[in-house]
Design a protein that fits this description.
- The protein is mainly alpha-helical and 137 residues long.
- The protein has one domain.
- Helices cover 89% and strands 0% of the residues.
- Helix 1 runs antiparallel to helix 2 and helix 3 packs antiparallel against helix 4.
């Protein structure tokens, strides 16, 4: 039951943080309707990260599994962001188009990174406390 509630609270906390970052970026950049993609992507990242860390908690060594899952989730996310930036630069390299697309790319990247990091920190903290409680008693 501890794993379920850890995942639930991590989902709520990291989803809220990612949503707040997306909202702040939308206000700061004067976003319009294309920013709906950013909010949908933020929710998608939260669901995927919750599933990855839920599965990591079910392993025999959850502390190491959560650390590995967090590291590889960040690596994959940053690699996908770099591929997106490369695609934008490759497809249409005019300065006006790139300048117009960068707020959306930042909106896709920053909330996702915040979501992953907060989720990772919360789950790591809860897993370490759970392992310490099991070893102590």
């Amino acid at each position: 039951m501890r794993i379920f509630f850890t995942s639930l609270f991590a989902f709520l906390i990291s989803g809220l943080a990612g949503g707040l970052i997306a909202q702040w970026l939308a206000l700061a950049t004067g976003a319009e309707e294309e920013y709906i993609i950013v909010f949908m992507f933020s929710v998608l990242v939260t669901f995927v990260v919750t599933f990855v860390f839920f599965v990591a908690q079910l392993t025999n060594d959850p502390v190491a599994a959560v650390a590995t899952a967090g590291k590889w989730t960040l690596i994959v996310f940053v690699a996908l962001l770099l591929l997106l930036v490369a695609l934008i630069l490759y497809s249409d390299s005019s300065a006006a188009v790139v300048r117009k697309d960068m707020p959306v790319v930042a909106g896709l990247g920053l909330p996702g990174l915040v979501t992953i990091i907060i989720h990772w920190l919360f789950v790591r903290w809860r897993v370490k406390r759970g392992v310490a409680d099991i070893e102590a008693g």
